[in-house]
Amino acid sequence: MGILTKPKNFLNEVRSELSKVSWSTRKELLASTVLVISVTGILTIFIGIVDLVLSRFLSAVFK
Q: Do the domain assignments include residue 11?
């Protein structure tokens, strides 16, 4: 195997494997993106509220 045949074989194998992948449709991708952004926003709000409550509780305890 020469120095140029290894990269060529690798790229051929990559192309072969990528043809086996089940790619998402645009509609599925957009739905997943909206879901991820929504869940991230909800978790951000939840963690912010928990942080606020705990910080006020701890500041009252340690005053």
A: no
**C-alpha–C-alpha distance, residues 55 and 63, integer Å:** 12
| Tens digit of each residue's pLDDT (9 = 90 or more) over 30-43 | 999 999 999 999 99
pTM recorded for the entire structure: 0.66
The parent domain of residue 28 ranges over 22-63
Helix (H/G/I), strand (E/B), else coil: 2: coil
CB distance 24 to 32 below 8 Å: yes
* DSSP secondary structure letter of residue 63: -
At position 3, the amino acid (one-letter code) is: I
CA geometry: angle 36, 42, 46, nearest 5 deg: 140
